[in-house]
Amino acid sequence: MRAQLTTVVAAVLGACLLALLVPVLVLARVDSEQRALISAVQRAQALLPDAATLPPGALPTVPMADGLSVTIYRPDGQVLGVPAALAPEVLDAARHGRASIGLDGRADVVLPALPAAGLGAAGAGAPVPSVVRVAVPDDVWERVALRTWLLVIALALALLLAGVLVAEYLARRQVGWLDALGSGADRIAAGDLSARVQPGGPPEISRVGAALDRLAARVEHLIDAQRVRSADLTHRLRTPLTALRLGVDGLRDRSAAARLSADLDVLSQAVDEVIRAVRRSEEPGTPAKADLVAVARDRVNFWSALAEDTARVISLAAPEHPVWVRVRHPDLRAALDALLGNVFAHTPSGIPMWLLVRASPDGGGVLIVDDAGAGFPPAEALWPGRSGGGSTGLGLDIVRRIAEDSGGGMLLDRSPSGGARVELSLGAPLAQD
After folding, report:
1. Quick one: which of 132, 229, 323, 385 could link to 365 by a disulfide (CB 3.0–4.6 Å)?
2. Residue 89: exposed, middle, or buried by beta-carbon count in 10 A (0-12, 13-18, 19+)?
3. What is the pLDDT of residues 258-309, one digit of tens each?
4. What is the C-alpha radius of gyration for the chain, rounded to an integer number of angstroms?
5. What does the alpha-carbon distance between residue 242 and residue 72 come to, in Å, rounded to a whole number?
6. Collapsing DSSP states into helix, strand and coil, what is residue 97?
């Protein structure tokens, strides 16, 4: 934008200067001719009183320093100054006393030494007067014109340069405010709601900057309020969890009570994690790094008791070495629980499932969860809030966001057994992690 504004100003200013420059150059040429003729007339008039009495050698035989060539023709045929042939205007001046200036397109000045009136009174027997001729070569006034032209052109270029510099300065100021506004908007769009734009510049840009600041502050306030409300609502789960724990403790079947107590511990930990997550943003420096193999084995062991109760088989194929991915351990555990929980919730008892973990060639890892069920419903049913079967549809959306936040993604497909396949690609941890 700055370049466009500067270009437009330069083009307009250049056109205006060109429209003024052409007539100025023409006038400068005419003025140089006139000044050359005036100088020649003055030089000839200065020599007229002494034209008949100057001794030989009194005038230089070459053009003078100013370029003028002075020649005096005497009645006895003697020529003083720069040698030159008798031109018709010289003879006419000697015979009839007529002065001439710039005849036949030349800039020569020819003046008779005696006034024309005196010659007319003397009649035919009057003596022939001396004649002074001052020749002005073309290159004399052309040099004067050239110097004037160069001066005018240099002045025009200086004005054009000054105009372009002023336009560039003004455009830079205007565009600078827009750049600052755009940078602030980019930071806010990237999630930095603490970013603010210092309003400034023209009133229109200043109003936009102030409105953007108010918008960022409003969004930040709404997010904080929503975070607090979510934490409060989640905290209310502690009361029914406490009641459930009391009920479990009163069970007579101690093995069932121990299993349910362990499940309640996991649920209580999940509630605590939700409260911590919604009450504060993730702190800078918190390592987003987890071993995909270790978490997969841990969650398979956790769900194996329920798999045994429902006559399912969970198979896990994973390398012996760790596969590090850019996901926080609680998030990775929640993603695996969501995927395995979906299989238990949406497939009949006895349906097996397979988990495959492998390292990616460019870092990170891949997790594939297959089952032998009926597969996924139509694609639109997988959108959050539109899943069938009484589900909220948020489980796969949470898994997708965890994968994308790590720099990877999620792919839904059919497994080799005809059921559902969920493939997660998870990015590698950052260097500082």
Report:
1. 323
2. buried
3. 778 777 777 777 777 676 666 554 444 455 789 999 999 999 998 888 888 8
4. 51
5. 133
6. coil
Residue type, 165: L
Q: Which two tokens stand for residue 43?
A: 């030089």
Q: Amino acid identity of 25?
A: L
pLDDT digits (tens, 9 = 90+) for 118-162: 434 344 445 667 888 888 776 666 777 778 888 888 888 888 888
Torsion of CA 201, 207, 211, 212, to 10 degrees: -30
Q: Secondary structure of 314-341 in the HEC alphabet?
A: EEEECCCCCCEECCCHHHHHHHHHHHHH
Residue 326 gets which letter from DSSP?
A: S
Within 10 A of 109 (CB to CB), how many other CB atoms are there?
A: 28
Nearest-angstrom CA–CA distance, 208 and 203: 9
- The contacts found for 8-14 with CB under 8 angstroms, 24 or more apart, are 9/163, 9/164, 9/167, 9/171, 10/160, 10/163, 10/164, 10/167, 13/159, 13/160, 13/163, 13/164, 13/167, 14/160
Distance between CA atoms of residues 270 and 390, nearest Å: 22
Question: What CA–CA distance (Å, rounded) separates 396 from 394?
Answer: 6
